[in-house]
Write a structure and sequence with these properties.
heterodimer; A: alpha+beta; Rossmann fold; OB fold (Dihydrolipoamide Acetyltransferase, E2P); B: 82% helix
Chain lengths: 341, 246
């Protein structure tokens, strides 16, 4: 469990906080945010490597604000693994054992077996693959029995194959231990597949905190909506179950009044050539503005009376509907697809 | 080629000018032997002092950012650029009885003028920049994250230095120590102001040249070149290993 209260950290020109974060015991907490938002600084502050200006920090019910890094029951694994290059895998894993009195759930043999490191023990880090390095770094951190394991983008420097492998290892280790995991990431796949709870940090402040489900389905601000990849974020004026955007009157299912924002995911917007009768409560005529390839699907921008909506179609659908720039089309989406905030 | 000849010709000449007989005789000349031994002792002591005093300082410069750091780094390099007799005169000025620092030294029974302590003092002054710069580079090449991880695993700062920083930066520290020893061994200008006696090898060579001419100074020069070359070879071996390991 981690309890952060009114934490403020100045580092060169950067200001982190004030932050108040509560992470439940045994959670897999994902800390997300753009580059330079303060994720690593927060991790290093929790680890005791950076001193906060104000605030307190509790780990497993103990105030560790003034404790040195080794007296916090916190382990850290960096993106670049930070293995000691002059020590073998065995020596790296055993490094912290002499300093700790914590009882780890894992002894050396068990950790080596779980992380499949048996045949690598006498190798130097320079002779390991990215995945092997990460597994060694995990073993080195876990052998001292930390209450909290801090993971600083541990998957971002790995290729796809190793990424999947380490992700599974992390999932398993988290499931099998009582350790609280706090991981920073850029990758939403990591958050969605590993995280139970999370927070998004922006310019040193928490933008939104909650369950992973909440963060990805109920963004509370335009930044959050665009951060999690929502398109069609529009400023609107609400009147009951209608949101007035430029040139459009959009129906939604969360009645309210005043100014605010709506977001509609591109996958929810259906394009047709005819004004078909559907159950969708929102239907607008428009002209295709641009078609862009985005990975395996195509992103189609449609100008609907001044408001541009983005939809996604497959290559086949594009050919079937004979869609090109300038084509007149109709777009439709359900009122329940409109996210209001 | 011209540059190479320019560098090699005087050294080869000095190395080949004295006959083997004269060199053999020189090795049994008590005055030469004691001057060479004093040179080795004082330069060795200077290098050890550079290592002890310079290590924490170099670590601080490599790891920390603070106001005035550039100025401090420039001050460290000053002994490299100022004429060395000036160093001797400056140290003489503060170590005499007319200066409060000199009086403290006198009260402690430390004599600078005409003593091995004085020689070591000026040698440390002229050679410490070489140690600090090499060690600083070595410390800077050790990622700070390694030290951070070590501390989160429970190691103290001292243990972290002993188990992580020193093994990884040790070769640079050794290179710095050898460079400062080599620099100290070749010093003449600063030492001659502080201590003509007891004589270190460069001062003896100078005295023999003045009193008896070139021929009598050459055997001492030969021994000094041989010692310097030995240090240089050790240094090259160490640095080439470092490059291979990098």
């Amino acid at each position: 469990m981690i309890k952060i209260r009114n934490l403020e950290v100045s580092f060169r020109d950067f200001q982190l906080g004030p932050l108040d974060i509560y992470i439940q015991e045994g959670a897999f907490f994902m800390l997300m945010g753009p580059t330079g938002s303060g994720k690593t600084l927060l991790l290093e502050t929790i680890a005791g490597l950076v001193k906060p200006d104000t605030g307190t920090l509790e780990v497993a019910g103990t105030d560790v604000t003034g404790n040195p890094p080794g007296k916090r029951k916190v382990g850290i694994v960096y993106q670049d693994t930070a293995l000691f290059p002059h020590l073998t895998v065995r020596q790296n894993i055993m490094y912290g054992v002499r300093y700790t009195t914590n009882r780890s759930e894992y002894d050396f043999d068990k950790l080596v077996e779980i992380l499949n490191l048996e045949r690598l023990l006498e190798r130097l880090p320079g002779k390991l693959s990215g995945g092997e390095k990460q597994r060694t770094a995990l073993a080195r951190a876990l052998i001292t029995g930390p209450e909290v394991l801090l993971l600083d983008e541990p998957l971002s420097s790995l290729d796809q194959m190793f990424k999947g492998e380490i992700r599974s290892e992390l999932k398993r280790l988290h499931r099998e231990t009582a350790t609280t995991f706090l991981m920073t990431t850029h990758d939403f796949t990591d958050s969605l597949s590993l995280g139970t709870h999370g927070a998004v940090i922006r310019n040193g402040n928490i933008e939104q905190e909650g369950t992973i489900d909440d963060i990805f389905h109920n963004p509370e601000t335009p930044f959050m909506a665009s951060f999690i990849g929502m398109k069609n974020v529009l400023p609107v004026e609400f009147t009951g179950d209608t949101a007035l955007a430029e040139g459009l009157s959009i129906r939604h299912t969360s009645p309210r009044t005043g100014h605010g924002f709506i977001a509609v995911s591109p996958e929810s917007i259906v394009i047709s050539r005819e004004c078909a009768v559907t159950s969708e409560r929102n239907r607008f005529a428009g002209i295709i503005d641009a078609i862009e390839r985005t990975g395996t699907v195509l992103s189609v921008s449609i100008d609907c009376g001044g408001t541009v909506l983005v939809s996604q179609v497959t290559r086949n659908a594009l050919a079937e509907l004979e869609l090109t720039s300038g084509t007149d089309v109709f777009v439709s989406f359900k009122a329940s697809s409109v996210h209001v905030f | 080629m011209a540059v190479l000849s320019f560098l090699a010709l005087p050294l080869v000449n000095i190395a080949t000018a004295p006959s083997p007989g004269i060199i053999w005789e020189s090795l049994h000349d008590g005055e030469i032997v004691s001057a060479v031994l004093l040179s080795l002792y004082t330069s060795g002591m200077a290098a050890v002092i550079c290592l002890i005093l310079g290590t924490p300082f170099a670590y601080l410069l490599a790891r920390k950012e603070f106001p005035g750091k550039n100025l401090i780094e420039s001050i460290v390099d000053i002994p490299i650029v100022i004429p060395h007799p000036v160093v001797g005169i400056a140290i003489l000025a503060v170590s005499g009885r007319n200066h409060w620092f000199g009086r403290i030294l006198a009260d402690l029974g430390i004599r600078i003028m005409g003593s091995p302590a004085g020689i070591i003092t000026v040698l440390v002054f002229v050679s410490i920049p070489f140690f600090i710069n090499a060690a600083k580079e070595g410390f800077a090449s050790v990622p700070e994250r390694l030290e951070n991880v070590s501390m989160t695993l429970g190691a103290s700062k001292l243990s972290t230095f002993r188990r992580i920083t020193f093994p990884l930066a040790g070769r640079s520290m050794l290179t710095g120590t050898i460079m400062s020893a080599a620099r100290a061994l070749s010093e003449f200008g600063a030492v001659v102001v502080i201590a003509y006696h007891p004589m270190i090898a460069p001062v003896l060579m100078f005295e023999r040249y003045q009193a008896y001419g070139l021929e009598y100074s050459q055997p001492v020069a030969f021994i000094l070149i041989a010692l310097s070359l030995m240090i240089f070879i050790v240094l090259r071996i160490l640095t080439s290993r470092k490059r291979r390991n990098a």
